[in-house]
Design a protein that fits this description.
tt1808, chain A; alpha+beta; 2 domains; 10 helices; six-stranded mixed sheet; 6 strands
Length: 262
């Protein structure tokens, strides 16, 4: 969890409520996209702490097209912001557009927003461009007295960008998610514990690890946590962690044996 500065907390407390009212009013009025861009710049400045004149650049050109806003810290491009009108719903094609923008600029983070909803997205560029949504907030739902809400808002703020809070949050999200939990539940160690507990509670039931593992995979766990690249990555991370623990255990064992032999 990020340590939130007094300056950040006070700024959010002073300005958030005002912009919650404005964003909902503009959403209801279905204002033009240009008006929403102006509002987003105000929010980025007054709530999230960016300097409107030195750090926010409008209509940032990327090859033959433009991104609505770019955020520069100390003259270095750090974040792209794609804005849609307040009355429109954010759609997948909007996300693809801003991801394409970021990939061409070598930027790892982009924001997609209509002033009402804010999405923070991590971009990966390897053999092909891919992305992962890291955080999504609805500004009107945020409570400046709620620690979890403040932590989410912090990810979009200048303080979060300059302290690499986005990357830290993303790493945490990669480790603690439904795919990791699913992989752990399906591991031999957990299956063995469940089997022993079943036999302890119901002595007449005879069940092996293999049958129990199949039941967990086919009837208990949701399929989307078992299949796909993210599920495979979670299993790989779990095995890597287990191997690390095993190596540490073996190292301690060797030290103890050496001490006893001396």
């Amino acid at each position: 969890m990020n340590k939130l500065s007094k300056k950040f907390i006070e700024r959010v407390a002073s300005n958030l409520k005002k912009y919650q009212r404005i964003t909902l009013a503009q959403q209801k009025s279905d204002v033009a996209e240009a008006d929403t861009v102006t509002l987003v710049k105000d929010i980025l400045a007054d709530v999230f702490g960016y300097d409107k004149y030195d750090e926010l650049t409008s209509e940032h050109q990327i090859k033959a097209t433009y991104c609505d806003l770019a955020i520069k810290i100390a003259g270095k491009l750090r974040l792209l912001v794609e804005v849609k009108s307040a009355g429109s719903s954010l759609a997948d094609n909007h996300l693809r557009q801003v991801i394409d923008y970021g990939a061409h600029q070598g930027i790892h983070w982009v924001i997609l927003t209509n002033a009402v909803e804010w999405r923070l997205v991590r971009i990966y560029v390897a053999k092909q461009i891919s992305h992962e949504e890291v955080c999504r907030i609805v500004l009107a739902d945020m409570n400046p007295k709620n620690e979890d809400h403040l932590q989410c808002l912090f990810l979009f703020a200048k303080e979060g960008l300059t302290t690499d809070a986005m990357d830290a949050f993303h790493q945490q999200a990669q480790l603690f998610n439904k795919f990791t939990v699913s992989a752990i539940i399906r591991s031999d160690a957990v299956i063995s514990v469940v089997r022993r507990e079943i036999r302890r509670l119901f002595p007449d039931i005879k069940v092996g690890n293999e049958n129990l593992s199949l039941m967990v995979e086919n009837e208990v766990i949701k399929r989307d946590t078992i299949e796909g690249d993210k599920a495979k990555e979670a299993v790989a991370r779990m095995r890597k962690a287990l191997n690390k623990l095993e190596r540490a255990k073996n190292k301690v064992t060797k030290v103890v044996v050496a001490d006893l032999a001396s």
